[in-house]
Amino acid sequence: MSTCETTFASYAAFIPDFDAFCTALRTPRTCCLRVNTLRTTPAVVQALLASQGYHVTPSPLAEELLLVEQLPHPGRLREAYLGYYHPQALTSALVSLSLAPQPGELVCDLCAAPGSKTSHMAQLMRNQGVIVANEPAHERLFMLEYNLKHLGISNVITTRYTGQNFPLRCKFARVLVDAPCSGEGNYRWDRQGRLRRVRYAVSPLEDLPRLQKQLLVRGYDLLAPGGSLLYATCTYNPAENEAVVQALLEQRPATLQPITLPVQHSPGLQQWQEYTYDERMQLCWRLYPHQTGSVGFFLASIRA
Ligand SMILES: C[S@@+](CC[C@H](N)C(=O)[O-])C[C@H]1O[C@@H](n2cnc3c(N)ncnc32)[C@H](O)[C@@H]1O
Q1: Which of 117, 171, 245, 272 sits in a 20 to 30 Å window from 111, CA-based?
Q2: Are 172 and 108 in contact (CB under 8 A)?
Q3: Does the pLDDT at position 199 exceed 70?
Q4: Contacts of 78 (CB under 8 A, 6+ apart)
Q5: 146 — phi, psi (to 5°)?
Q6: pLDDT in tens, 137-162
Q7: pTM score, whole prediction
Q8: C-alpha distance from residue 205 to each of 114, 201, 242 (Å)
Q9: Is 234 known to be catalytic?
């Protein structure tokens, strides 16, 4: 049977406190809800859940994030059906918070389904401006459109291009490339020691780093001068993270910029196996479960 120690052995050299990392992957996580501020307020949701006996703590990170103990099926509560909240991992919510889209802006979400981050951006933009949410997989586009409607979002246009071929006809103030990836950040082991992972929306035969590099370059080419791009994955694999950002830095005059949220993180790598990465890579964020209590993520904030 696979264990965290064997599955991630090749990462032990760069994951800080690898034992604590593996312990975190065997420990149940606190549920995170993102309150849909287009429909209600965090205080209302907190009171509604507290009246049902749940222990709810507001996250210090953002007022719309609530942490709820012992809530294994957050999608089944009445408040979820009402669109009062969207269950979303804390680190996943950091993606839209880092990109920080503003009301009235033109934003592109290049890999959008099922819409957790599109809908978060829409609420940060107070339903003002336009988000072009792109998703090539037909059945996932359906989920995206369902979620947007359910959450009362009215500033999103959906498209169905392969992101690497997204038309270059207009330029965006902000672009999100939440790339298809191997999803290692979601791996966990249950009490019986079985690996639990979210089945992912890409073929195992897909050359992910190649696709990710193409998506990131296209995302960059869609930026208006001075615009901001966020590249995100939920994997630890440097070939899908630093190597992808490195390829962009070699092909385009992109600037890496600091991410300024108060969250414990590790810097991007400058060395992995035989590869050396640009020293600016330390501005990227590696988010590990034992540091955040949430799923693993990689973030790179880029300016045109
Ligand atoms: C990590 S998921 C996106 C999650 C989404 N941003 C959210 O927060 O709900 C990556 C998405 O990229 C889509 N995808 C796969 N190949 C793609 C391509 N060539 N161009 C754009 N998107 C692609 C997948 O179908 C999947 O829905």
Answers
A1: 272
A2: yes
A3: no
A4: none
A5: -60, -50
A6: 999 999 999 999 999 999 999 999 99
A7: 0.97
A8: 22, 12, 21
A9: yes
